[in-house]
Design goal:
Layout: H1 5-13, H2 16-22, E1 30-31, H3 36-46, E2 50-54, E3 60-65, H4 66-80, H5 93-104, E4 116-119, H6 128-135, E5 146-152, E6 165-168, H7 175-178, E7 181-188, H8 189-198, E8 223-225, H9 230-240, E9 244-248, E10 255-260, H10 279-286, H11 294-298, H12 304-307, H13 311-314, E11 322-323, H14 329-338, E12 343-347, E13 353-358, H15 359-366
Parallel strand pairs: 1-2, 4-5, 8-9, 11-12
Antiparallel strand pairs: 2-3, 4-6, 5-7, 9-10, 12-13
């Protein structure tokens, strides 16, 4: 089995603080009284997936991500009609605009979640491996995709272990437990993968290992045919707690695109009827592939390629990134780090999706603890003189 010991030692030798200067960028935040509509526009215009939510004092209050927005949309739909999913084909543009109006007027403090905070002290000696294991919780089933680095807004008592304090704050908790923290940086799983790529020599022989050899093709993959309603596909993602689905050709089953929860960003109330389009046409409109304009789509027109069943042609300008079982780990890492992707799909020889590799999968593989040593075999009991294996008594 290939070893990732050198990579783990590298992460252990990297302190979190120096990395912050490399990932320094303008910190985009939301106020807790911002509306969901404003959040959609902010996330879309800034091309980000989440933002810290600040209270009236400018201190940390929570986190809002695109996944929170999708879950909230699903809840608003269910609240209006618990059986809406069974009636999805009869939902009209005016129906979805009514839902969008209610959805977007909510304030973000009602839909946010508890982010993962890392309190960085002046003498912090915590390492990047600490952050990956303790804050991303990379070996857990439910992981964090980013951490917010905080400093004390004012003098505050806190308990520290090895100069590191990890704080989880639940939205709606008492002010005393939620004050005094100023968010200064965001560090994501992508930042760590990019750092590993820049120092890929620490991955040594693992780089030449194939997806199949590293068992990165063993997972499952969620897909939707390009002809499926976008609203239905997003609802399945909300229900199954997924952030993306591979888009397949309805005839061949081959991978032709990707629908992500991030495709909700930037929608205005008037544009919510676009969710009634097929997945293929929705992607074509939102990514401006040229086959169907937004105005035409909102007027009820369809893409010619869609009506002709040429879904691959429709999405040829925005194909999903795929690898095969024989692709090298180095090629996968390069796609994630250099192209800034969050996932790549694994396809079979025919082009059908069979698995998916995410940033989480990569970091989980690299930091996986060694398997426990095999338990010693129980000593065989000495056979007595009276024992006879052929005795039927």
């Amino acid at each position: 089995m290939v070893s990732f010991d050198a990579a783990k030692e590298f992460l252990k030798a990297q302190h979190l603080a120096p990395l912050l200067s490399e990932v320094q960028q303008q910190l985009i935040t939301l106020n807790k009284w911002s509306t969901v509509g404003q959040a959609l526009q902010t996330l879309g215009s800034r091309n980000i997936l989440s933002a810290p939510v600040l209270d009236e004092d400018g201190e940390y209050f929570g986190c809002l991500s695109v996944n929170d927005l999708l879950k909230s949309l699903y809840k608003v739909l269910a609240a209006k009609d618990p059986e809406w999913f069974e009636k999805i084909d009869s939902i009209s543009p005016s129906d979805i605009i009514a839902v969008a109006t209610e959805f977007t007027k909510q304030t973000v403090d009602k839909v946010q979640h508890a982010g993962d905070l890392w309190l960085l002290n002046a003498d912090d000696a915590s390492t990047l491996l600490d952050a990956v294991m303790e804050s991303f919780r990379i070996q857990d089933r439910a992981v964090h995709h980013r951490l917010f680095v905080c400093s004390n807004a004012h003098e505050q008592k806190s308990n520290t272990v090895a100069n590191t304090t990890v704080i989880n704050i639940t939205p709606g908790s008492e002010r005393l437990s939620a004050t005094g923290l100023k968010v200064t940086h965001v560090v994501s799983q992508s930042d760590v993968v990019k750092l590993l790529w820049a120092n890929k020599s620490v991955l040594a022989d693992a780089l030449s290992q194939t997806v199949e050899q590293l068992e990165l093709d063993d997972g499952s993959v969620y897909t939707a045919p390009a002809s499926m309603s976008t609203l239905e596909a997003l609802s399945q993602m909300a229900r199954d707690h997924k952030s993306s689905m591979g888009v397949t050709d309805p005839a061949s089953g081959n991978l032709i695109g990707n629908l992500s929860v991030s495709d909700l960003r930037g929608l205005t109330i008037e544009e919510f009827p676009l969710l009634l389009l097929s997945v293929g046409e929705y992607i074509a409109v939102r990514r401006e592939l040229g086959s169907l304009s937004k105005a035409d789509a909102l007027a009820g027109k369809r893409a010619e390629a869609a009506t002709a069943g040429k879904w691959g042609e429709l999405l040829s300008g925005a194909p999903a990134i795929g690898v095969t079982g024989t692709s090298s780990f180095e090629s996968v890492l390069e796609m994630l780090a250099v192209k800034g992707l969050h996932r790549v799909y694994v396809t079979d020889a025919a082009g059908k999706p069979v698995s998916i590799i995410t940033l989480t999968d990569v970091l989980r593989l690299i930091t996986r603890p060694p398997p426990p040593p095999p338990a010693p075999a129980a000593a065989a009991e000495p056979m007595s003189d009276d024992d006879d294996e052929d005795d039927d008594e």
